[in-house]
């Protein structure tokens, strides 16, 4: 194995507010888009697509529904009341960084108030102070798959230009409040998700629209502008701030060496990096023009938008990486695999997780090298992990060796990438404590080093239990990534 990770490497874990906090209507918090997404039973892919593209009638019913249906993100894992206990466990593992998000509707319940909600601001003050007690650096996402649902009903989410100013005011509020408590920021989580799932990524209702792509790409443009203007404001408030972008990155291979497969894979990988091209380089890349034309999309820009993008570039590029898949022009190849809000053709050379995600550690090294060559800025792996149905043994232990194997292989490939010359800031594995799934809202798909006693229906004591991987990751951090052995 190559040399150990840099001494200042940021080891830690990641969660999102809407998947852990709960307390969905406490202390003045408004309803979020995550709060109106129902639980999707295992195996119901069609139901998943439905949950991520809600209709207006379903949205109205969800807003008025207080208890009839199962909306798991409303309860989370009660981090809102248990954050001290959880942060203490993170500190026990030796975390250097904790990636979390701020809930926009905790700060501005409807999204357009003149004054922020002080109770919401105080909550994050307390969380940051607790992290600081243990020397853990917060890495804070401003928008992680949630926004005030009122902005959906009033403006149809990010399809409206109105949200740019509202988001920048929200960003300005938290930048000012936490200017001495937070250094690392991300603007939008997996910003490219809005293209495929407009409601999840941007609160956009596509029901009745002739061209859903038009609405999605328009929403994405508004997010680009909001992100750039927030970066501008961040640097005015505290020049020491480091602000990054974040995208979902899945490596796509050609199914075969047929030139058609290679060309198709190249196009898919270009689209996977379209958003980072805009946020790192500061302009729309030339290849996107044909894609937009093919789907009859015409993005409306205001005067000055191009300058805003060009003048406010990100400091680093962060991304999620869980898996890879393949594509082919041969329609007879139909065996598919699932993934992080995506699907693709099966790669016969890879193993598959319980949820159909293909495990490809080498792909992480490929992605790191490609993005380093493309952008020459610091990179940050802010999501990576294995969702699995963990079992508590008779003696009360949880032997998640499968998770240890997955994480060890990916960490080893990060070390190889660093040896290749990649500048990597840190690693925050996803779901460092069990949480509600982003897509299916299920609890049984567990990622954490820490088990949370709760099922898909919300039953359980919420007791926190250290898994075998908890002690393993503690050893990994203490050894700066040199000891990946499972014993």
Automatic annotation (TrEMBL):
What Gene3D superfamilies does the annotation carry?
Glycosidases
Cited Pfam families:
Glyco_hydro_1 (PF00232)
Task: Extract the SUPFAM superfamilies matched here.
Answer: (Trans)glycosidases
Is Coiled coil set as a keyword in this record? no
Keyword list (alphabetical) reads: Glycosidase, Hydrolase
Q: Which residues form the active site?
A: 383
Which family is this protein grouped under?
Belongs to the glycosyl hydrolase 1 family.
- What's the protein here called? 6-phospho-beta-glucosidase
What is the scientific name of the source organism? Paenibacillus borealis
């Amino acid at each position: 194995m190559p040399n150990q990770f840099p001494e200042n490497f940021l080891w830690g874990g990641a969660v999102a507010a809407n998947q852990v906090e709960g307390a969905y209507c406490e202390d003045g918090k408004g309803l979020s888009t995550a709060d109106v997404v129902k639980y999707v039973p295992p195996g119901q892919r069609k139901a998943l697509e439905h949950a991520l593209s809600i209709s207006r009638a379903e949205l109205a019913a969800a807003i008025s529904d207080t208890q009839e249906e199962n909306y798991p993100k409303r309860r989370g894992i009660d981090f809102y009341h248990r954050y001290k206990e959880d942060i203490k466990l993170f500190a026990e593992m030796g975390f250097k960084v904790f990636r979390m998000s701020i809930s926009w509707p905790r700060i501005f319940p409807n999204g357009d108030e003149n004054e922020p909600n002080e109770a919401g601001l105080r909550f994050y003050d307390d969380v940051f102070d607790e992290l600081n007690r243990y020397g853990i650096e917060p890495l804070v996402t401003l928008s992680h798959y949630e926004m005030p649902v009122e902005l959906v009903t009033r403006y149809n989410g990010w399809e409206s230009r109105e949200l740019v100013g509202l988001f920048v005011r929200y960003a300005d509020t938290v930048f000012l409040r936490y200017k001495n408590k937070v250094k690392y920021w991300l603007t939008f989580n997996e910003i490219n998700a809005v293209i495929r799932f407009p409601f999840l990524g941007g609160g956009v209702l596509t029901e009745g629209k002739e061209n859903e792509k038009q609405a999605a790409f328009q929403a994405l443009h508004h997010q680009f502008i909001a992100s750039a203007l927030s970066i501008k404001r961040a640097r005015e408030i505290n020049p020491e701030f480091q602000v990054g972008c974040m995208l979902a990155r899945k490596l796509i291979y050609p199914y075969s060496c047929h030139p058609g497969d290679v060309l198709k894979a190249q196009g898919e990988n270009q689209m996977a990096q379209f958003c980072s091209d805009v946020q790192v380089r500061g302009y729309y890349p030339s290849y996107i023009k044909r894609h937009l034309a093919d789907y009859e999309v015409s993005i409306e820009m205001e005067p000055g938008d191009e300058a805003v993008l060009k003048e406010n570039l990100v400091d680093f590029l962060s991304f999620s990486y869980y898996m890879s898949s393949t594509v082919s022009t041969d329609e007879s190849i139909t065996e598919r695999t699932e993934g992080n809000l995506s699907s693709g053709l099966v790669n016969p050379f890879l193993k598959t997780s319980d949820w159909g995600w293909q495990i490809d550690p080498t792909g992480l090294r490929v992605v790191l090298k490609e993005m380093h060559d493309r952008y020459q800025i610091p990179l940050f792996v802010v999501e990576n992990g294995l969702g699995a149905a963990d079992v508590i043994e008779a003696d009360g232990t949880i032997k998640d060796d499968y998770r240890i194997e997955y994480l060890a292989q990916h960490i080893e490939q990060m070390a190889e990438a660093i040896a290749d010359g990649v500048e990597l800031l840190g690693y925050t594995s996803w779901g460092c404590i069990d949480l509600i799934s982003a897509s299916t809202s299920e609890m049984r798909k567990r990622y954490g080093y820490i088990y949370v006693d709760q099922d898909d229906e919300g039953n359980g004591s919420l007791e926190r239990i250290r898994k075998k991987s908890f002690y393993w990751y503690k050893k990994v951090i203490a050894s700066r990534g040199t000891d990946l052995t499972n014993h």
